[in-house]
Predict the structure.
Amino acid sequence: MIYPQNFETKTGFDKVRLLISEKCLSALGKERASEMSFSTDYPTITQRLEQTDEFIRILHGDKDFPDNYFFDVRYSLKRIRPEGTFLDEKELFDIKRSLQTINDIICFFRPTEEEEVLYPALTELAGDILVFPQLIKQIDHIIDKFGRVKDSASPELSNIRKEIASTTNSISRSLQAILRSAQSEGVVEKDVAPTMRDGRLMIPVAPAFKRKIRGIVHDESATGKTVFIEPEVVVEANNRIRELEGEERREIIRILTAFTNTIRPLIPDILLSYEFLAEIDFIRAKALFAEQIKAIKPVVENKQQVDWARAVHPLLYLSLKKQEKEVVPLDIELKENKRLLLISGPNAGGKSVCLKTVGLIQYMLQCGLLVPIHESSRAGIFEAIFIDIGDEQSIENDLSTYSSHLTNMKFFVKNCNEKSIILIDEFGSGTEPQIGGAIAEALLVRFNQNGSYGVITTHYQNLKHLAEDTEGLVNGAMLYDRHLMQPLFRLSIGNPGSSFAVEIARKIGLPEDVIADASQKVGSDYIDMDKYLQDIVRDKRYWESKRQNIRQREKKLEDIIARYETDLEAVNKQRKEIVREAKVEAQRILSEANAKIENTIREIKEAQAEKERTKLIRKSIDEFKASIENTGDTDDKIARKMAKLKERKEKKVKKQPEKQPVFNREVIEIGDSVRLKGQTSAGTVMETDGKQAVVAFGMIKSTVKLDRLEKVSKGQLKQEAKASSFVGTQTRDDMREKKLGFKQEIDIRGMRGDEALQTVTYFIDDAIQVGVSRVRILHGTGTGALRQLIRDYLRTIPGVEHYRDEHVQLGGAGITVVEFE
């Protein structure tokens, strides 16, 4: 339930709806945006949020979404339901492209067997939607890529159009002959060409010479200086073209009617597919709007709660963004034991904005829109949202502002419950303060008894006291900087706020004696209490700042400790590895020593030495062995000292600058860059053999005598490379200038054959060089010799794909159109 009826206007949701509608690609999506409504069904809300969130992932994905042709063809499909009606060419073209778009979207969401489902909510939405590939193929057979009915749509249409083309060319040739004759006699200017008037080709003539050409005068120019004559030799041909055009139109209607009869039984299924297209258009627009306001999909639970961090009013965010300003985010929490938040504070401190932010974001969320809050936030579902804000004075209904306020309160008390959220601005104001405050307090108690959630703004002290002592109510304050005398637009929950009436009066410049009289009238207790509230807010801000600094320092300290622990672990690991390697090396040395000692003893035995002497030798060897093994206790100290010494040595080596090898031009060695004397191409020496060397010039190896080579440095090669790249840049600039100044039409009328051929040769070369796709050569009709000469030349050019006469309306056989590959 939403109250009042103009809730969307009061919260600004009507502007949100308009912004989303503007992002839709078609009327299909705009209708969905206008029908967007508040929902209390948890599965529906979560499904809408998930669909929009998935589309945001599509916008950021690597694969392009097929959103080319979102056309609303529902009117056309409904119009052809009666027998005998048919779709025109444009309607058929729009249906074909939009059906193809639907098909592409379905393929985008339905993965193959090897692929995983990336967008489950949108894939489910596309699950049962029908596509019509055979219908698209039939339309492709009828119309071309420009939306015109193809010649091949039927044999009859093909014959008609061939006859039209043949007759038109005949008319063009006849007119050109008459025109040449008239030009030679001076009746018509030399630059005059046939023109089309009322669908018939005619010759423009000055009124003084209209009797010189036998024919019918059909029209004259607006100035009266030109008349348009249809020569009598082409009248019948023009009449035939008119007949053929009528036959062509009838054949096209027959083809379209036959296809419409095919599509008519499928109209209900096709309309369902367009409902899917409308939904996708709407979801796409919601995703784009979410991107614009930096909105996310929060954790939504099927219960009543408001636990938002860094919530932002979307319209305020967009407005301040244009001004390059930052919006102050809102942290707000409404929970079971603190459901009704009573916000106090100075005027223009942000109380109403805070209230509107809560109403708008909650309404957006339950309409299926992503909302601009922090990802750590948790949101709930409310069955009713009531709002009382602004001036509802009505002259027609004889309602004052306070009467309207009480009317709203009556509705709230009657309908609010534990699943409702109430938003009231300036609670109790508009009447005598004492009774207004008492009524407001009684209403607040009733709202609390009904278990409602809500945000209420007020200046009344009795309501602040009630919230301080009552379970379910909680005070909040909009912070204000007393020193700078400006609001901070930050909400602090837990303590009431001061209205800062005395301070604001002083800032505005109210006389001090007036302020003193007012303070005396309200009494010292009120002034002292207001000061205490200000001190509490000040102290809270101070300790909040201290706590924030401590948190930042603790976080920094934790990062440093974690980094040191990681480094210490790495050092211990490295030390153990060094000790292990040292012990392995010591064991190897010991084994070699044992082998050598045993060999000595064997030699003593073989020399038949005395037993006592042998015992002494063995004893000394055992003592030596034990001394070596006992050194393991000091390995750790030695390893640490060695590591420190090694580290210092490495630091010294790093500090010392590397000595650059001296470049010797006379000595050629393997790996040097060389080139042949007098040449510019450089190669690399692969081998040297006495007076010869094997040099690789790119992919080619060559054996060259050393006295024919000269050694070049890398710096010299870089300079030469820069010089060569400069030439390339200059050339590109010249080509760009040439392309910008190139004209795609040349006039060679009046030139001799060899002169015209040379001009056309240069023109075609330039056209191929700058990369144009199509040019026109004006050679006139004349005897046709120049036209034939030009076409014989064009036939020999590899880059020319096709050449033809210009359309009769644009010059006909007097112009050759050349198309390049």
